[in-house]
Automatic annotation (TrEMBL):
Residues 67-163 form the Methyltransferase type domain. GO terms for biological process: methylation. The keyword Transferase applies. Gene3D superfamilies: Vaccinia Virus protein VP39. It holds the Pfam family Methyltransf_11. Keywords: Methyltransferase, Transferase. This is Class I SAM-dependent methyltransferase. GO terms for molecular function: methyltransferase activity.
Amino acid sequence: MQRLTAAAASVAGLGSTTVRIDALSNHLPPLFAGAAEYYVRYRSEYPAPIFTELAGRLGLDGRQSALDLGCGPGMATFGLTEHVASVTAVDPDREMLAAGHALAVEKGVDGIDWREGSSEDLAGLGVGPFDLALMAASFHWMDRPATLAALDKLINPGGAVVIITGSMSGLARDTPNRPAWAEAAYTTRERWAPSRRRWRGDTSDNQSTYTLQRGENRAVLEASAFASVDSYELHWQRTHTVDELIGLLMTVPDLTPTALGDRIDGFRTELREALLAAQPGEHFVEPIWTQVLIGRRPTD
Ligand SMILES: C[S@@+](CC[C@H](N)C(=O)[O-])C[C@H]1O[C@@H](n2cnc3c(N)ncnc32)[C@H](O)[C@@H]1O
């Protein structure tokens, strides 16, 4: 795995985007209900070097078509638009799509087709074919082998699947140099959301939604049509106030405003006390370990 140096993300471009909400019967659990507004405020886009490196490895020259599956409000979508001609941004959550569309209009970013849908209805969406499919912090919510099989039908010969993990480190115990407040956040989450949501297709007793999945994704790719796997990673960081950290934690399923309901104030108070006990002060530096896996079809 190759390591990159960090730099700020940038987004540019002028124009408009489209959003299309089809009458799909959405049978997925509403994991992120009520989270979109918090997501836009408290998460951040991935740093630009992630996409520069990706463009170099895949030979992206602004002519390709891409799918961003599980796009949320576009945390990876906007970085991708810098290197391809068009992005179809798919998510089952309408609030996420609306937030992404609003951000695109605000930024003046062109070439994004926001679509309601999921890994489970890709074939019926009438989208594609694509030169690449990106899944950023979303693959772990899907039935991973079934998703890769569906993508095999949508991705052009010579195309690739890209899996990005690591958009926040407070809840990922395997992030190197994790500060004490991150463990306090983790244990507070355990108390308020003890029964973790499972990803689609998971039948194991494994209760960790995220951390263990990081290691498994390579094996899942290697067992798919996209078995030729390449990878790199980026260590970067961002600084939060305690209120921003609380908002960040509320972007996670089971801790969203909708999931907490009238428990919001209790959660916020307890988390604030736990964070400040672990680290007094107003500046919380979050180390982030973002990993990128690229899967291509073997050539021989
Ligand atoms: C943690 S957010 C990631 C958003 C964005 N890609 C990012 O990197 O910040 C996960 C997103 O995956 C979406 N999602 C969940 N299950 C999905 C599925 N089966 N197919 C497609 N998207 C899904 C959720 O609605 C949510 O917007």
